[in-house]
Write a structure and sequence with these properties.
Elements lengths: L2 H7 L13 H18 L4 E3 L9 H5 L8 E7 L4 H18 L3 E5 L16 E10 L13 H4 L8 H10 L11 E6 L2 E6 L5 H16 L5 E2 L1
Parallel strand pairs: 6-7
Antiparallel strand pairs: 1-2, 2-4, 3-4, 5-6
Protein name: Nitroreductase
Organism: Senegalimassilia faecalis
Pfam families: TM1586_NiRdase
Length: 221
Amino acid sequence: MELMEAIQQRHSVRQYTDEPIAADALAALQDEIAACNREGGLHIQLVVNEPKAFDSTMAHYGKFSGAKNYLALVGPKGSQLDELCGYYGERLVLKAQQLGLNTCWVAMTYKKIPGVFQVGANEKLTVVIALGHGETQGVTHKVKSAAEVSNLGSRLPAWFKAGVEAALLAPTAMNQQKFKLTLENGKVSAKAGMGFYAKVDLGIVKYHFEVGAGRENFTWA
């Protein structure tokens, strides 16, 4: 499965079956986690067979069931952490989709379980990502138009249009899509809107844009 196909097929899933993640899929995920941690300077960790994080009132309110595997997005405290976690977290989400797994970004509807993953003295847990075999493949959600999130016009190149279209399929908090992509003087700028987890969303959006547009076609402003 190519990355664009993974972007198109991936939807948030909150209900999971008891089917375990196969050993080869776990190994592939761990390899990708290690690569993301090296490139992003992060401390992302995979937690397997741990159901307590999603066995809480908030998790049930969020309609989670059967979730017992997740990624803990941890990294050094700083102004770039949220965006980095969004960017590399979505890279792992799409890798999971390619491996036949389902996922869901989780901001608050989970419980921190002591000793399950490590958070260093100068580190912070940003969000988690539930993953496993979903009871369904999820459903699509309404998205904004390209004009609402970018300066896309008839004179702008096809690669920019493809990038914006991929960005519109990015998961964002409450599906609000509070971001803006602008192409000016040969460079693309991406700006976050206001709201909870807006910078995490921006990182997710930027990864999607890169996949759609082709990283070789542009530079970030």
